[in-house]
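Encode chain A's predicted structure.
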Amino acid sequence: MSKDYTPDSFKVLLKKLVQSPDEFTPEDCALCFRHLCVQGASEAQAGAFLTALTLSGLESSAEIVAACAAVLREHAVSVQDLIPNPSVAPEHGMWDYRDSDKEGDGYQGLVDIVGTGGDGWDTYNVSTTAAVVVAGAGVRVAKHGSKAATSTSGSADLLLSLDCRLAFPVSEVKGFLAHSPFLFLFAPHYHPSLAHIAPIRRNLNFRTIFNVLGPLINPSRPQRMLLGVAKRDLGDTFAEVLRLLGVERALVVCGKEGLDEISPEGETWTWWLENGEITKGEIHPTRDFGLPSHPLSTVRGSTPDLNALTFNSILSPHTTQPPSHLSSPVGPDSPSFAAINDYVLLNAAALLHVSGKAASYKEGVAIARESIESGGAKLAFEGFRDASKKAMGEHIDQIIVEDDGGVAAKNGTVKAWLKARRDRSQTPKELNK
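Encoded structure for chain A:
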């Protein structure tokens, strides 16, 4: 415990929050969070603070949320220098960014796709799958996530079912993006200062400000983000918080059904942040993406193991038979492979647009399809999976992938489909014949 942050100094702040909430400032809240991060408040005080903050309604203030997120970012484990030099020829087993970095507006930084959770729809792990598809196009994705809190399968649950390792030493994370544009940061490993807060939150058994902070505290601090919220009134708050945190470009979305993703069923409310300006709008699967719409019941998720089967089928370029749990839907509202595939394309396309890789949502759909059909998405995932195992000291057999002029290959070979798209002389399907 720091001598500057003690239960006695916390008392003063707590009294102000309870007795004069109108005078409780973002700076006061940030100071409270600094106490929490160094265990400078007792468990009773921490519980009282979270309760009072909830009852005051201040947790919906963008300035308050941004102040708290900034403190948690300060106390997160540092993960700097993640991006390898893109101009250097890759060594064997490393990803070649030199062609893909020429696509779009040239952004070479990190992106993230994340939702607040708590929407109650329990849909398929679309953000994790979309992140891998986007990475297959050469966009550097640093996804920050954890195990399920309100759904059947969280991002970490899915990746564990896909034979990935998430307990690798934090010191190893710097080398991951050299092997794959997809990186997953398991939240508990990067926020040790919050470990003692978890049992307090469980005992309170109601939503607190921590429920909205998760998507904002990615330790890699991506400058371009797709962020989903489960309630429309959170859209304004999150867009403003991202602006206050200095995020360069972001799209905050809320499906009109109360979905914290882009809805495959109909309209989605949007808040586009760029150059410090926020623009509100709406998007629709058919009108803006050129994709058919699907009821939310058709993109319902399942257990992590069954979702892993769906994931592998989506990333297999020439899937002819979907997994058995999706191959014979009981009715038109049952989960279907086609609907989930479109759901992934929808959200991947939006992230590709936010990342600057795609000039529009429809172009994003085309690039997402290419990522899957070329094998790029699958290789991006395999690169992360194998790197996670190596970081745990496990032996991985090296398979040399020859450049056949068709599939997107790692191991330093060139992605021919990216060249073809640039000169528009061939399509990915023609390349793969």
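Residues 337-355 form the longest helix (19 residues).
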